[in-house]
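Minutes, project check-in
Item: structure for the 478-residue chain
Input as provided by the requester:
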Amino acid sequence: MNIPIAQVNDYIFEIPKDFSKKMKVPARFYAHPSQINLLINDGTINQLFNVATLPGIVKFALAMPDMHQGYGFPIGGVAAFDYKDGVISPGGVGYDINCGIRLSTTNWKTEEVKRFLPEIITKLHNDIPIGAGKGSLIKTTKNEFERILTEGINWAVDEGYISKIEQEHIEDRGQLPVENLSKVSERAIERGSTEIGSLGSGNHFVEIGYIDKIYSVRIAEQLNLFENQVVVWVHTGSRGFGHQICADFVKEFQLATKKYGIELPERGLACVPFLSKEGQEYYHSMNSAANFAFVNRQLLSHKIEKTLNIFSKKIKPLKFNLLYDVAHNIAKLETHIIENRKRKLVVHRKGATRAFPSTMLQGRFASIGQPVLVPGSMGTASYLLIAKPQAMELAFGSCCHGAGRLLSRSQAKKNISGANLKKTLENKGIIIETKSISELAEESPDAYKDIHQVVNVVEALDIAQPVARTRPLGVIKG
């Protein structure tokens, strides 16, 4: 399909609504101009156009500067649907429900830690369940596992894995509403109960890094950040539990879509009215997977802190604090101002980060704005941003979630040697531990876009403001 693209300004591009009678709204994306041909050729723009045709979509279908082709919706996609007249779509959330990222800080400095890094990374690699399949940090009864699914981080507070104060540092306090688990399959329960507290595979990782640049001294001081500070990134999601829920509902929705008379441009966009029986069943099942993911990251962080504490005698007593934890794949009920009136919307973020400015927040971050965590690839930088008010006007309170892929996993494995990549990174002083050298190539820095360019776009649009940049010291890959 030859789709016309209008350039609104330096970084805003749009497919006009009048291009096709099927479009309910324009399809808009934010990008560096050098990326346009790539986006057209890999199918991302076609996918965004398709999203703009779905029932009840509001304002525009949107994609962030880290966008690339996904299943149904493009990754980096944001779409908001009217609460009463709109739909909910598993393809708009993704298979790894609440795949997300958390950033924790320490009181250690790079120079204090460097000589112990090989030992630290090896110990973490041995202590954390990694890779596809079974492996967990805790064993639960079925009743306790169901508590995790319905209570999320509230369960972790009760069990002593996190304090109520730190709970404020998690998006929605780490607990999304779940009315019941009636549509969560036994297969999903079986998969999830053996993987709670595990890293997984693919692009999931634990990274020990350090802050190499501060952009806003004022905000950095408020967040207790300083140059050469050692930090810890954890990137994972709902594991096989969320994957099974998505698979179950994709199959069901492909039949239910016909029942509701919804015409789909492609099967990956299978959806139902949000307020329908099927829509509500998916919403609450999805939330249970999101709660799983919040707890999963918390259990991993708790284990990482215990492992790092072993080295306190060699370094100095450890202070380990959660800065923030955000979801990347989720659909949420939110109120937004559309054409000067408040509207209740179902906001899908697939490979996108919520980015609420201070006016939308309460508690710890009400005077600052929400932290936005943007990890790069294992050989490049990552960024801590703070949401700005324009995020609401331009992106339904959303921002980019990473660098975004340039090469598919299969292309990366074909073009890049995992063994050579490991040597290259270690020559740069970055220690890598992984279960699979061959699969390491999938996550090569060369397989991803320029993270600095991606961040520059959201900064130029005043969606989010850079506060600090980190660099990797050691990475544990799934």
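Outcome recorded: The chain has 16 helices and 19 strands.
No further action items on this chain.
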